[in-house]
Sequence to fold (202 residues):
Amino acid sequence: LIIGNKDAVKTVLESAFEKLENGSYSSQIISIFASDMVSLILDITQRKNIELLQREVAFDFNKAYVFGDNIAEMKEKLFNMVDKISDEIASNEKSSHRQLCEKMYEYIAQNYRDPNISLKVLADRFNITPSYVSMNFSKMYGASPSYFINKYRLEEASELLSNPALSVEKIAGMVGYSHERTFSRNFKKMKGIYPQEYRKLK
Fold:
């Protein structure tokens, strides 16, 4: 449940309830089972810091004995808890991913001139893996971090090219490129023409 696999949790619960329904268990044993299940789910809500569900589950934990031998009611209640917790965890995870991607985007906007900025630098900066950066960032913004690094660099370079006092090589270094050739190649790829040609049009 913690990793979001509610179907697997329901499969385990389904098996447990089949044993309860087919066995000869006293009301006391069934109530203990209910209390144990609710207690486990309460622990998950606390670990995931889901405050609203903590209160709801805590209430059901205190009232678990009410289930008595009504296995159908117990099953319905526990399955509803699993659904709510799973949905809340998924929502929180999505929000966390979004916030992290927004921070990465902001970092790129502020540091694109750094010639060392890269996927690995971003991953190290936010203590995540490069694959996580690539997958989640691209999913949210529709393009890779490298695309936006180049986009910021080339937008600034386009403005600087209007200044004849600055050489193409100088501009390349100012916006974060270590080599003029790489700058020219990326400029041509995004703008359709080389920086020298662009400058003449300005």
Notes: The first helix runs from residue 6 to 22. Confidence is low (pLDDT under 50) at residues 64-68.
